Amino acid sequence: MERSEEAATMEFNSGHVALxxxxxxxxxxxxxxxxxxxxxxxxxxxxxxxxxxxxxxxxAEALNISQPxxxxxxxxxxxxxxxxxxxxxxxxxxxxxxxxxxxxRARKILLELREANREIGELxxxxxxxxxxxxxxxxxxxLVVPAIKEVRGTYPGIEVNIQVETSNVLARELLAARxxxxxxxxxxxxxxxxxxxxxxxxxxxCLIVRSGHPLLEKGVASMVDLPGYDWVxxxxxxxxxxxxxxxFLTEGVRLPENIVNTSSLLLTCAIICQTDAIAPIAIDVAxxxxxxxxxxxxxxxxxxxxxxxxxxxxLITAREREMPPSARLLYDMVLAESRKLx
Length: 342
Description:
With 342 residues, the chain is α/β, with parallel strands linked by helices. The protein is 46% helix and 19% strand. The chain is built from 13 helices and 11 strands. The strands form 3 sheets. Strands 3, 4, 5, 6, 9, 10 and 11 form a 7-stranded mixed β-sheet that branches. Helix 5 packs across helix 6 (67-81). The longest helix is centred in the N-terminal third of the chain and has 29 residues, at 97-125.
């Protein structure tokens, strides 16, 4: 059945609970009205999964239950909350204002339970624990790797989980509580008030080509030499790609036409080594690859007569979310490494 905000408002005004003005965290842990009404942890997991996926089938899969069971769970929640929590749209479902309010609080509750489990585990071992960190490629190599070496030497029981991705992906993973902190930038389409930010470095980039590339014979390449070759770019909208495109536009040089889009560094290197393509990557990464003794590292930094400076990256945490001790330890060591380089 179709659900609308207008219908929700009518129910709301007829005497049902006003979720927009009710602190659900207080309701659950204060007078426990929602708990006594039957709200369960699986209900909270379901509403978060619906918000993340926008589809009942995908949410059911995430919770490892059938789609009919997921639909029944949503009906149970609406009965408990006494208001519509979602509405059907062309490609799935969307949360109502009330559903969004519940999902926001549910996400915090689930995160606190995860952190409680982690903290108890750390207390049992005395110095263990897990850290979940995301980073764009350059600081992952120049800051996270040496920080991990430092922390593992002092606290060998700590398990570090790293995701290397674009800022667009990492910021959303942080908000979804899948990372303790990230080293990246805040995407333009996200509210910066959701984050705590400490700027720690500027990423310098370069262009790489294969050994024996025709442009290497030129000595130093200019912008006008580049459009005629194939390019390997990060996906559209990513910061490094936008930086390169802006350089072309500023110089009045036509943009490359033959492009492969990928966020995979390994695939980028494979294409570079087997073709005359050009790819922009962070200088730290390029220097690392160029010093390795393997076919996969048969890349050279292309000398160019212009600079590629990408917007500064930062240590970023979610606002009003405390990091566990193990994550704080790695965070501080990454910060110390950045000050060494600065």
